[in-house]
């Protein structure tokens, strides 16, 4: 009997030792990110009080939007979960902030210089562990994110939060003043838009009106998926047939009689549309205008404007312009990766995406019925033809080279050359190409290769 008991105890000891050995071995089930392995247990959101933090980089996201679209919905569903926003000095760079703070969540556009710091967690294990349904995500957003790391590890660095699309904002009062019929749900070609713009461009009683503003070359370029810089070399690739058409269209807009003033004013902006109210049509981002227009309304400034589809080239009818992707990511240094990802999953649920749709952002999920809720909670959008937002399919944004932010001023200079410096299209392209390549050579030295 004693021998039997000894044998049982020995077997138990061997089993315990084997278990401890397995736990200490490299193949212990830990994911590469340091989190639990797929299928392992993890803390559920709401199980215990937790405070998570979020930092915004590379995108406009007001405190009201943060509260309305992220913090408040999570707190409502999980009363013991708080999400706080990290506020930084206005002149602090993202890399500076992220070297000082460790936010659990990162909101915004994926920026190459920030990606390079390693702050973005590869979400593939979290996606698997939490059974997140990637098929619900719109390809225009998710494919863009995955393309960033294509062939370089193929990490999934973020989940799209919303799709920032382009629309045409137009001032009905200016259309009325000059007897021009309102825009409809018909998508115009650029030539048609330029012709309408010409009818709205004139000076009356000392007030200079401009018919069509399209954010110059950087905005017009969104009509194609073509990049500014070669993905491999980083050099300029703007001397192509498509880019030549964009330069020619820009020149045509500038050649509209009266577009450029006697004192050579040529660069018309958002404030000229909203505050001065002298722009007939402005083609721009949704996020660039809806929030500021609502702020003006709250200040008591209102005027008669509406929304129409974005113009494009004849062969592109049915599509709009390159979409900007705002996303949510998990910090690779966070101690709460599973909880942070569960927050992302909640925001990407139909209920979460309905909230952002009602508050003026286009959802990132393939749920067509959410379109009818677009803008319902934004007073300035009451009575507007908001469904025109969804006419035309947005294009996937081109791969944005890490050097691109350092050379965009050259496109502004090229537009100025076309507008007031007397350069023709060929000369403007040649000058811009030379300037961009010179800048790239400097950036390659200061930033290194990517």
From TrEMBL:
Residues 1-22 form the signal peptide. Pfam families: SBP_bac_1. Gene3D superfamilies: Periplasmic binding protein-like II. The keyword Signal applies. Keywords: Cell membrane, Lipoprotein, Membrane, Palmitate, Signal. InterPro entries: Bact_solute-bd_prot1, SBP. PANTHER family: ARABINOSE-BINDING PROTEIN-RELATED (PTHR43649), POLYGALACTURONAN_RHAMNOGALACTURONAN-BINDING PROTEIN YTCQ (PTHR43649:SF33). This is Extracellular solute-binding protein. It comes from Paenibacillus hemerocallicola. The lineage of its organism: Bacteria, Bacillati, Bacillota, Bacilli, Bacillales.
